[in-house]
Specification:
Elements (H helix, E strand, L loop, with lengths): L5 E5 L3 H13 L4 E5 L3 H10 L3 E2 L3 H5 L4 E4 L6 H8 L8 E4 L5 H10 L4 E2 L2 E3 L20 E4 L7 H13 L3 E4 L2 H28 L1 H4 L2 H4 L3 H9 L4 H10 L1 H23 L3 H20 L5 H9 L3
Parallel strand pairs: 1-2, 1-4, 2-3, 4-5, 5-6, 8-9
Antiparallel strand pairs: 7-8
This protein binds 1,4-dihydronicotinamide adenine dinucleotide (NAI) and 3-(4-hydroxy-phenyl)pyruvic acid.
Length: about 300
C-alpha cells in the first residue's frame, strides 16, 4: 500500500489546520507542508507550528505523496490548477469539499495525471481559520470517499487508512448520492438556519429588539449554524444546486401541509409528525452522532 508520509495541505483554515493537528499527533514520522493564499493565515499557521508553511502551492506539493485541498468548494479549481504542474509522479490528490459531484469532475479534469480520490469529512463547526481547528475534530466522525471511474484501488485504500489514522470512520459512496444525502442532512438545514435568523432580524423592528434578548435554545442553535462561513456556504449551495433545489421543493410541500394542519386545528397531524421526529433524534443520539462528543473534544482537547 502507498505510504503517505509526506502530506501537503492547501488551505490552512478550520479543516486544513485540524488535519494538520490530527496528522501531527497520529502520524508522528510524517512530514507536513502547507500553503494558504492568504498571507495572514500563512503567518498564523507558522506561529502555531501546524506545518512547514511555504510561500507557494508549488513548493508545498513538490515532494508530497498526498495532497489535500482544504479550500472553499468554489476555490477548488483554482487550487487544483495551482498544483497541477508541480505534483510528484504518482501523488494522490484529495479534497475535503462539502459537495462532491461537481468538485470531483473539476479535480479529475484539471488533475488528469494525478491519482484523484475526492473526500468529505462530515465533521466541522461554524468557525473558520487556523485558530479554530482542533486535533480531535474527526474522531468517531464519518469521512465519505467518492472515488470516480479514474480513481485507482491502492490510492483509495491509502486514503482510507489515512482518515482512519485520524480517528474517522470511512465510507465509500457515489458522488451524486453523497450530494443528495448531504443536501438533506446538512445543506438545506443550513439554508433554513440562515433564513430564520434573517427573518427574525428583519422582524426586530416589529418586536422591538426582543427576539435577540429572549432568544431561547432553539433559536440560539439556529444562530450558531447561521454564523458559519458566508463564502463556504455560498459555494456549497451553488455547487450542489440540483440536490438542494430538489430537497427544498419537498421541504416546501411538507411545510405547506403543516401550515394547513395548524390552520385547520388538526392536532393529530402535528402530533404524528412530532412523535416521528422525536424517535429520529433518539436514534441519532443512540448512534453517538449528536454533537455532544465533538463539543466535548473541542472544549477539552484544544491543540
Ligand atoms: N467548516 C466546516 O465545518 C467544514 C468544511 N468542509 C469543507 O472544507 C473546506 C474548507 O473549509 P474551512 O476549513 O471550514 O474553511 P476556512 O475558511 O476556515 O479555510 C479555507 C482556507 O482556504 C484558503 N484558500 C482559499 N482559496 C485558496 C487557494 N486557491 N489556495 C490556497 N488557499 C486558499 C483561505 O484563505 C482559507 O484560509 C470547504 O470546501 C468546506 O466545504 C468540510 C467539512 C466541514
Ligand atoms: O457546525 C455544524 O453543525 C456543521 O454542520 C459543520 C459542518 C459543515 C459542513 C460540512 O460539510 C460538515 C460539517
Amino acid at each position: 500500500m502507498d505510504e503517505l508520509n509526506t502530506v501537503a495541505i492547501i488551505g490552512l483554515g478550520l479543516i486544513g489546520s485540524s488535519i494538520a493537528r490530527a496528522a501531527g499527533a497520529a502520524l508522528p514520522g510524517s512530514s507536513l507542508t502547507g500553503f494558504d493564499s492568504d498571507e495572514a493565515v500563512r503567518r498564523r499557521a507558522a506561529e502555531l507550528g501546524l506545518v512547514a508553511v511555504v510561500d507557494s502551492a508549488a513548493d508545498a506539493v513538490r515532494d508530497a505523496n498526498l495532497v489535500i485541498l482544504c479550500v472553499p468548494v468554489g476555490a477548488m479549481t483554482a487550487a487544483a490548477e495551482s498544483i497541477a504542474p508541480h505534483l510528484r509522479p504518482g501523488a494522490i490528490v484529495s479534497d475535503v469539499g462539502s459537495s462532491k459531484a461537481s468538485v470531483a469532475a473539476e479535480l479529475e479534469r484539471v488533475l488528469s495525471v494525478a491519482r484523484v480520490v475526492p473526500a468529505h469529512p462530515v465533521a466541522g463547526t461554524e468557525q473558520s481559520g487556523p485558530d479554530a481547528g482542533f486535533a480531535s475534530l474527526f474522531r468517531g466522525r464519518w469521512c465519505i470517499l467518492t472515488p470516480g471511474e479514474t480513481s485507482d484501488g491502492p490510492a483509495l485504500l491509502a486514503l482510507r487508512a489515512f482518515w482512519q489514522a485520524l480517528g474517522a470512520r470511512v465510507e465509500v459512496m457515489d458522488a451524486h448520492h453523497h450530494d443528495l444525502v448531504l443536501a438533506v442532512t446538512s445543506h438545506v438545514p443550513h439554508l433554513i438556519a440562515y433564513t430564520i435568523v434573517g427573518t427574525a432580524s428583519d422582524l426586530e423592528a416589529v418586536t422591538e429588539g426582543e427576539v435577540i434578548k429572549y432568544s431561547a435554545g432553539g433559536f440560539r442553535d439556529f444562530t450558531r449554524i447561521a454564523a458559519s462561513s458566508p463564502v463556504m456556504w455560498r459555494d456549497i449551495f451553488l455547487a450542489n444546486k440540483d440536490a438542494v433545489l430538489d430537497t427544498l421543493q419537498r421541504f416546501g410541500e411538507d411545510l405547506s401541509l403543516l401550515q394547513r394542519a395548524i390552520r385547520n386545528d388538526d392536532g393529530e397531524t402535528l402530533l404524528d409528525l412530532f412523535t416521528r421526529t422525536s424517535a429520529i433524534r433518539r436514534g441519532i443520539v443512540e448512534m453517538g452522532q449528536d454533537t455532544a462528543a465533538a463539543d466535548f473534544g473541542r472544549t477539552h482537547e484544544q491543540g
